[in-house]
Fold these 3 entries.
Entry 1:
Amino acid sequence: MALLRCVKIQVDKVYSKAVNPPTFLKKLINITGMSEQWVTARIKQKGDNKCISWRNLKDVVLTHPNTKKRVDVFALSIYSLVIFPKALGHVDEAVTDLFNRLDKGVTPVPAILAETFRSLNACRRAGEGRFI
């Protein structure tokens, strides 16, 4: 909560997709504070999902003049690279959706637990390796 500056997280709300969510492009523009041209030039397609490279976001974290945007981009990167690592070295579209909802006071705990459960279940079904 301190990292995201969310003082009013509503515990009773669960993570769910909005009916008409903003596009990945719009979410990245909102989170990073960068121009539409900057974001459009850096969006890539990885498999089924759109994503943006961590290296591009690292530059924003290091050079953005707005400190709040720096913290937001840094927190988005942590969520993507540590909690939901889908495409190695890239921030996934699903993570930006979660992060966008955090700004509205929705708690990420159910989403994190669901992702952990899904990962454990996949490891168990595959019968190989361990969940780390």
Entry 2:
Amino acid sequence: MFKKAMIGALLLGATQLALVAPATAATEVFWGIWPVEVEPGGDLAIETKAAQGGCTPATPATSAGFAAPIDWKAAGMWGGHRGYGKAVTTPGKYTANFTCNDGRKGETLTFTVIGTPPGSTTPKPTTSTKPATPTKSKPAPATPAKAKPAPAKSKPQVAVKPVGAPQTGGGAFAPMAWDW
């Protein structure tokens, strides 16, 4: 009886594995781009880790928002790969992608080159064509400076010397003091 139960459990496990394995192989490859908002011409970094949902890159990461395709270099543990590049100087939203050694595509990521895109209209501040008229104001009358009162003299404080351990802050932990 025990043998039949074990065989059934093994068959069930193999069936589940057969159903789940193809689903995970078809998933997109996770990777990152930093920062997601970059200054025009600013520095960008990309990273993927094969052991954590990434892959080994076969192609550079490409985007219209990159000044040039970003090449990958092996970095760190978990099959990590990193690359560094520059953003274009034209503001806007851009997407980036790459291909893995096994043919999968990296998840399409979006990043923004901040600023006002060319050709967009921004409202200009309204200015008045009428010249400003000067206003006449009377000078404030001079007020005599008031004398500051002399500071009150206080009595000097009497120094009190502690008598014992409670007045000096205890002393219960003296054997454990860190004064070496």
Entry 3:
Amino acid sequence: MSDTERKRPNILITGTPGVGKTATASLIAEQIGFRHVNVGDLIKQHKCYDGRDEDLDTHILDEDKLLDLMESMFQECADENKGIVADYHSSELFPERWFDLILVLRARTEVLFDRLSQRGYGEKKRDENLEAEIMQVCLDEAKESYDKEIVVEVHSNTIEEMESNVDRCKIWVEQWIKDNA
């Protein structure tokens, strides 16, 4: 199905681990009736990896396997007249045609430090993620990978900010549907 045939937009929620991607994506999908795809969970469930990096305490991603799996999900949702809200810490590996909005969540370092510590992240992994947030790695990656007009940076430090982000997304989706009817 071509992009012009889609009746619903697809949204990618991205950002450094711990900024609230999954919680935000889940709320948005629930409130607008879209399918939530937690890409990290998808990778684990379908074993889309080629081994493990023990230093970083993470799997080594098999991008081809993941993208093939997701391609069929996007087609299925388009056929069902349903949009997708995906969340993942990286945005550059996905085809541009998949997403109409890239929401980059950001958090203050002290908030992120507490969230990553509560998750039990080791010092090295926590510090690398904090550095990535300070250096706005996820935001820059999104801006380099997609049309800058569809990349939106929002703060995700509090429940109120998360709720505001969800509300803004709902309004954006309603407008996208009107504009593409």
